[in-house]
Design brief:
alpha/beta; 8 strands; 13% strand; binds phosphoenolpyruvate; binds magnesium ion
Length: 316
């Protein structure tokens, strides 16, 4: 029955009144591409490149090896969009040869973009490999940095992309509340934002994303998190730029409608969630999504936010 409900639900993501919300896939490498294409993904919204760096635990993969793997992913989406995230090492993704071993709080330490700015050679090699991989392909390449805290981070990343000769759009992930609060300033340096709601929840609620004891704070429906999504999306709109979501939040069909209502411009998720998100989005108008978003933001807890949005979207 579930399957039947999804049949016919192909094509680009959009609300019932035709407001387009590109639905993209999160992938970890070429092995995930097939499922993404089969699910009808319009491209890749988050290519997690960490996995490639785990192959040999003692040093980064060579430029040739990286270029080969990146090309396999880029080739799968001719004319489509592929958003590649540069290496996100540290905290929940430690890499022995890059991640400092002696930090008392690795989630608050040298991780993500911070690691790359400490190892500019690693960043440069990755960006050069990406430039080579994209050569001659009609793909629409976007490259983004994880864990951008402020405008200086965004500028350092954009400078590194330019000096590697990369012809792509450069973006910043919003995973740190400071970046959401000052999104307009970050957008002076980059062309798009992508909300990493998993880390954004972790840092907003000071709750380790891997710790069961504080798991309730990882709920992406929490109104404070929705506020930060709204700030980011509004800033992007004011700057005429895009703001997607690539964290787990995007894979919840109901929340996908709320994110759309908050002004998010694309949603990226694991391929298996894509048909459900597409089908749910297609049932509601943009105005309904906006009303659901307002109701969710007015709630006092994640649970109430979900209930309030559900009530609006089911026409209660
Ligand atoms: C996130 O933090 O939401 C995100 C998309 O990145 P990751 O889960 O890989 O940290
Ligand atoms: Mg993250």
């Amino acid at each position: 029955e579930r399957k039947a409900a999804l049949e016919g639900a192909r094509g680009p993501g959009a609300t019932s009144d035709g407001h387009k919300v590109p639905l993209l896939a999160n992938v970890g490498g070429p092995g995930d591409v097939r499922a993404a294409v089969e699910a009808g993904a319009e491209g890749v919204g988050l290519f997690r490149t960490e996995f490639l760096f785990l192959d040999d635990g003692s040093r980064p993969p060579s430029e040739d090896r990286q270029a080969e793997v990146y090309r396999q992913v880029l080739e799968a989406f001719p004319e489509g969009r592929v958003v590649v995230r540069v290496l996100d090492a540290g905290a929940d993704k430690p890499l022995g040869f890059l991640t400092p071993a002696d930090e008392p709080n690795p989630a608050l330490g040298v991780r993500g973009l911070r690691t790359l700015l400490d190892h500019p050679d690693v960043l440069h090699t990755q960006l050069t490999a990406l430039a080579r991989a994209a050569e001659g392909l009609p793909v629409y390449l976007e490259v983004m940095a994880p864990m951008v805290a402020d405008r200086a981070d965004a500028r350092a990343f954009a400078d590194a992309c330019r000096s590697a000769g990369l012809r792509a759009k450069f973006g910043a992930m919003v995973e740190i509340p400071a970046a959401a609060l000052r999104a307009r300033s970050v957008l002076q340096e980059v062309e798009f934002l992508s909300l990493g709601t998993n880390d954004l929840a972790q840092y907003t609620f000071a709750a380790d994303r891997q710790l069961g004891a504080v798991a309730r704070h990882q709920d992406p429906w929490q109104p404070a998190l929705l506020d930060l999504v709204a700030f980011s999306a509004e800033a992007a709109k004011a700057e005429g730029k895009s703001c997607g979501v690539c964290g787990e939040a995007a894979s919840d069909p109901l929340l996908a409608c709320v994110l759309t209502g908050l002004g998010v411009t694309s949603l990226s998720m694991g391929a298996s969630a894509l048909p459900y998100v597409r089908a749910t989005l297609a049932k509601h108008t943009l105005a309904q999504c906006e009303r659901a978003a307002a109701a969710a933001r007015a709630a006092e807890s994640g649970e109430d936010a979900r209930r309030a949005a559900q009530a609006v979207l089911s026409g209660e």
